[in-house]
Amino acid sequence: MAAKPLTGTKVFLMLVAFFGVVIGVNVTMMKLAIATLPGTDVDSPYAAGLTYDREISAAQDQAARKWKVSAHIERRADGNAVLQVEARDAAGQPVSGLKFGGRLERPTDKRADLAVELAEAGGGIYRGNAASVAPGQWDLVIEGDARGERVFLSRNRVILN
Questions:
Q1: For all residues of the chain together, what is the average pLDDT?
Q2: Distances (CA, A) of 95 to 55, 115, 151
Q3: What Pfam families is this protein classified in (predicted)?
Q4: How far is CA 8 from each of CA 13, 41, 43, 99, rounded to the nearest angstrom?
Q5: Mean pLDDT, to the nearest integer, of 114-122?
Q6: What is the dihedral of CA 54, 45, 118, 82, to 10 degrees?
Q7: Residue 51, strand partner residues
Q8: Given its phi and psi angles, is residue 148 left (phi above 0), alpha (psi -120 to 50 degrees) or beta?
Q9: pLDDT at 108
Q10: CA 54, CA 60: separation in Å to the nearest integer?
Q11: What is the CA angle 156-95-93, rounded to 5?
Q12: DSSP state, 59?
């Protein structure tokens, strides 16, 4: 059986097919990369920029209160985590009557974030549980509200084993 000769048309079609596959794979990978990890800390940087002055004012008000708020989080062997927050005012008296909430945020994937509801246990101590907490690095965000207004915000990087 005689071999078919290599013509200009065949070479052209092979080049088109090769580059078509390369471009198709690149487009697919680009779409997957953009859809899975946008690389932003906030959903709308523009909106975050507009609230910047309010955040500065809230931070100054928080510093003026001179509260001492400490948090302890522990991940148990079953994957659940226990969060305890203790709040004291400038005079060392327990701060009660606030609505504290916590969030465990994954630095690399917002889809893994977990909310932790904290209930007041008395004496300025607030406790809550989070289920199915994976080991690794997390950002622990604690917010305290009084009468619908945020009066405390803290963000700390923690490592849970």
A1: 92
A2: 22, 22, 12
A3: FixH
A4: 9, 52, 52, 75
A5: 93
A6: -130
A7: none
A8: left
A9: 86
A10: 10
A11: 110
A12: H
> In which band, very low, low, confident or very high, does the pLDDT at 39 lie, cut at 50, 70 and 90?
low
Lowest mean pLDDT among 1-5, 40-44, 60-64: 40-44
18 CB-contact burial (10 Å; exposed 0-12 / middle 13-18 / buried 19+): exposed
pLDDT for res 42: 76
Structure-block tokens of residue 107: 């630095």
- Beta strand spans in the chain (E): 68-75, 81-88, 99-105, 114-117, 119-122, 125-130, 136-146, 149-160
Residue with tokens 């849970």: 160
3-state secondary structure of 84: strand
Q: Which residues contact 42 (CB under 8 A, 6 or more apart)?
A: 48
**Which single residue is written with the structure tokens 């203790």?**
86
